[in-house]
Amino acid sequence: MKIAVLGATGTAGSRVVRRLKDENVDVVAVSRASGVDLVTGDGLVDALAGVDAVVDASNALPPNGSMEWGEALTTATRNVVDACGRRKVSRLVFLSILGAEDPVFDEFPYCVAKREQESIIGESGLNATIVKTTQWYEFATNPAAVVFHDDRVEVQDWLVQPVAADTVADVLVREALDTSGGGQVLIAGPERIRLPELARRRLKTLGDERPVHAIEPDLPVLAEGALLAWERAKVMGPGLEEWLASLRRETTR
Fold it and tell me: Three-state SS for 108?
């Protein structure tokens, strides 16, 4: 097989690339660094030449602030669907967010854009699987919810059920190699934790002892469990302690 990975330099995409190469799959690593822009479409059709499957782990940013992030995401997905159709790609695996379609996020542009991306893919006629996950352990220090100061770290008080990015990558690879797949795959981590505590644990493991302060979330529902796993989501490890142990090993290599 020849598989293209969109967002190949990102947290999930880079892991997918490594795993596919370990499986001796012919991988096309697609990113702006490789000369492909998903939002403008530049280079995308050429990049998918001879490709059997596409894993879309991208999070397309608007070029030079020329449009809103939500518009950039949906424009990128339309371009991906169009390029897959033109190149007769037989399989598309798309990474999304579990719970984005919940009405509590109707005023949250990013989630609204994720819904539209999923709709574009669902209506495309492609053999597609949408992999929807809860937040990742790695999100613990994401600027979307975390502000770093010289003497402290402020973290929005979200209640989350994080899953490891390595686990997400494993699922994306499995789905890409399964040409008979389709529909949705929902995955979540095994433990519930408040984001400030997760951030504190991750930072401490990395040797950052700055105190972590919880602050009000942008949306109150984020503190109330709106991001927790749905009942039909598959719970997948590792647990927090195991993940922190692996992080500790990585930092001491």
Answer: coil
